[in-house]
Write a structure and sequence with these properties.
By secondary structure, the chain is an all-alpha fold. It contains 13 helices and no strands. It has three domains: 106 residues, Helix Hairpins, CATH 1.10.287; 78 residues, Helix Hairpins (Orthogonal Bundle), CATH 1.10.287.1080; 60 residues. The chain starts with a helix and ends with a helix. It comes from Paragemmobacter aquarius.
């Protein structure tokens, strides 16, 4: 029966979930499984889980919708992988994972699945969500949860910084205005530059971390996702540097054969090219 299930490409989502769970079980089978898969544990698989999540985000950012099913499948496989290892260790199974998230969605949406009114703004629903989460954390921890409890250590650092600051802001620990955040950024940056010659490498790293933390705070005040903003900046840099390489190649050169002045001029050319393209799209949209 298991061979038939593994090779069965038909059926609805329930059938295909069962198929994926069985494939994972076979990969980890001590007798006939895959040697590589059998060597893995939670710690070795966790980096792949993060990588797959980032690849999903990348596909969405590129709007490569034809790639999204495959990337979501890779991410789903990571969930099944962890659940299989947990079942082998006698901890829980895949059904517990699905049950946990289903129960959580029910409890956190009382305006949909309960008696609460649906006549709420998105902001109010977000506030209710956080209130319910805080209550869950408090119930799970003896003596009640701390304000910063539950912010995962494994999050990207910028994301975690914003989440920590949001938690602190809820109890009033926050700058009241964006201008104060900007002033703090200028202060931290100036201190770092002035002291870099007398600080140890560890101290410079610490001070730079403080600066990044305040930058994350500015992102929060501006309601900007710092990870998305930095991904956009990375994409822009990659795109424009690629144009520099193209133009240098047309002249029979490589970046190593050029100098900063030439490449900077080409950078500005690429920047102007992008602005002109955006303006053309805007004009077309307005006509």
């Amino acid at each position: 029966m298991s061979d038939d299930l593994v090779r069965d490409t038909g059926g609805g989502p329930e059938r295909q979930i069962l198929r994926l769970v069985e494939i994972m079980r076979r990969l980890r089978d001590p007798v006939g499984g895959c040697p590589w898969d059998l060597e893995q544990d939670f710690g070795t698989i966790a980096p792949y889980t993060l990588e797959e999540a980032h690849e999903v985000a990348d596909v969405i950012a590129r709007e490569a919708w034809d790639e999204l099913p495959g990337e979501l499948g890779d991410l789903l496989f990571q969930v099944v992988y962890h659940a299989q290892m947990a079942e082998e260790a006698g901890l829980f199974g895949f059904d517990a994972v699905v049950r946990a998230i289903s129960d959580k969605m029910l409890s956190r949406h009382p305006h949909v699945f309960g008696d609460e009114s649906r006549d709420k703004s998105s902001a109010q629903q977000t506030a209710d969500w956080e209130r319910i989460k805080a209550a869950e954390r408090g119930a799970a921890k003896e003596g009640g949860a701390g304000v910063l409890d539950g912010v995962a250590l494994g999050l990207p650092a910028l994301v975690r910084a914003v989440k920590l600051q949001k938690r602190a802001a809820r109890v009033g620990f926050d700058w009241p205005s964006t201008e104060q955040v900007v002033a703090k950024i200028a202060e931290e940056a100036a201190e770092l530059v002035e002291a870099r010659e007398v600080l140890t490498k560890t101290e410079v790293e610490e001070e730079f971390g403080d600066l990044l933390f305040v930058m994350a705070n500015l992102a929060r005040h501006l309601e900007v996702d710092p990870e998305a903003a930095l991904r956009g900046a990375n994409a822009k840099f990659t795109r424009r540097f690629g144009r520099i390489e193209e133009w240098l190649a047309q002249a029979g050169k490589r970046p190593a054969d050029s100098d900063l002045a030439e490449m900077d001029a080409l950078w500005n050319r690429a920047k102007a090219e992008e602005k002109a393209a955006k303006a053309a799209v805007s004009r077309k949209r307005d006509t």
